Amino acid sequence: MSRKKRIYKRDISPDPVYNSKLVTKIINTIMKDGKKSVARNILYRAFDKIKEITKKEPIDVFNKALSNAMPILEVRTRTIGSQNYQVPSEVRPERRHSLGLKWLIQYAQKRNGKSMEEKLAKEIIDASNGIGLTIKKKEDTYKMAEANKAFAHHRW
Fold first, then answer.
1. Smallest Cα–Cα separation from 117: which of 20, 27, 12?
2. Which residues pair with 89 in a beta bridge?
3. Hey, what CATH topology would domain 21-70+101-146 get?
């Protein structure tokens, strides 16, 4: 029997404006050096730009972008003997969310543009339309999983 104490996940409180836990998660992912108010301002301004451009509710556009960005399969490295195999495996639901959010922010930062709000807004809009670097990353992950399908029997 394990001697380790069970670690419980802390519950995240929903953000005050959109009352959504996903919005709080993306704020926490954007945040650098503990500056939550700066991250919150970046996201809310990006949502304002999304509303301006698409004429839709920004939370709906964001949810669609996140669902398009979340991967279902990924490859994990598994060492068997002295060889490393890229084994395709299913992604847990919680990791799906975190990967989708991480990719959205990562590729928004790499975009050309003046401010992070502008870049994030454009990346969210592109991801909700099924285009952009975030979606390309997801498709590349699927291609890797498809190419290594022969090693699927090495799953653990």
1. 27
2. 74
3. Ribosomal Protein S7 (1.10.455)
As a whole number of angstroms, the distance between CA 120 and CA 12 comes to 22
Q: Which of 2, 138, 8 is nearest to 66 (CA)?
A: 138
Rounded to two decimals, the pTM is: 0.86
Q: What is the pLDDT of residue 81?
A: 87
Dist CA 23 CA 42 (whole Å): 12
Q: Looking at the predicted structure, is the pLDDT value of residue 1 above 70?
A: no
Query: What's the burial of 84, exposed, middle or buried (CB within 10 Å: 0-12/13-18/19+)?
Result: exposed
**CA-to-CA distance for 86 and 77, rounded, in angstroms?**
5
State both tokens at 120: 């994030």
Largest CA distance in the chain: 57
User: Which stretches of 9-123 are assigned E, i.e. beta strand?
Assistant: 73-80, 83-90
Whole-angstrom distance, CA of residue 79 vs CA of residue 151: 12
Report the distance separating Cα 62 and Cα 124, nearest Å. 6
DSSP for residue 17? T
Distance CA 103, CA 22 (A): 14
